Task: structure prediction
Amino acid sequence: MQKIAVVAFENISAFHLSVPCMVFQDAFVGSQPKFKLEICSLDRAEITTGSGFDVILAQGLEPLDSADIIVIPSWPDSLPNPPQLLLDKLVAAHQRGTLVVGLCLGAFVVAEAGLLDGKTATTHWAFAEKFAERFPNVEFDSEPLFVDQGSIITSAGIAASIDCCLHIVRRLCGSSTANQLARVMVTAPFRSGGQKQYIPSPVANRPEQVTSLTKVIDQISETINQPHSLDSLAQRCAMSRRTFTRQFKASYGCTFSQWLLTQRLKLSQQLLESTQYPIAQVAELSGFGSESGFRKNFNAAFDISPSQWRAQFQGSSKET
Result:
């Protein structure tokens, strides 16, 4: 039986504390447990969660010394750097062969211990820039739901921690056990780590200075589903094609074709999430010349099909 130690601390996310408890212990009710779960306190016997209720813990960090798996739930951004005692125990455990897991912002703690240097890791997309700046020796990837590096696993934010923990069950106990747990939890049985986080598409900042270029682009934004060529836009701005291309890149930080594709993909996401239009109609309303072209661009951008995107947000997997 694998021994799992989950580190709890003051202001811990109640959700992130509950995830390993549910996946590794509660969901096994009525069947033979595969794990022995221990919650250990970083601070003191009684801690207050971020949701405001208190949790009483029976032990300190001692379980880390003999754990097969150590889970660091999401580390609150408001907390100071993790204490050296915790970092030292993580390093020692990793050297013994313990699997170290950082859920969401828990990846910051794992990286602070130096265990991610030279490795690939992920965390919540909203903290991607901060993580990359703080830990330049880590190969950071903001897109996956989780990254399995063998002896270390990091996950993206919130619900991705469930996917990460189910992945650990699948890795150690097999797909059948993991799928059974997912059914008990009424959650998706399998979302691969390579599936991308739902990161809001970056939108080029609109220049503050109003020019003939920005006025035309503002108009284009309202007719994004219509055909727009460089030549026609350059003409409307009273510029040559070359001048338009140069000024657009200088003002928006990308080419016009990149900007246009991003806007159309954002519109298609909104239509998929809020309507039941057939995929072909979504493609047309978003300004794509063909359904096949739309599917190709959507898959390339989000690593998921339009129908799958709709299913994730609307709860329907019907192909249309």
Notes: Confidence is low (pLDDT under 50) at residues 316-320. Residues 256-274 form the longest helix (19 residues). Strands lie at 2-8, 35-41, 46-48, 54-56, 69-72, 99-102, 120-121, 139-140, 146-148, 152-155.
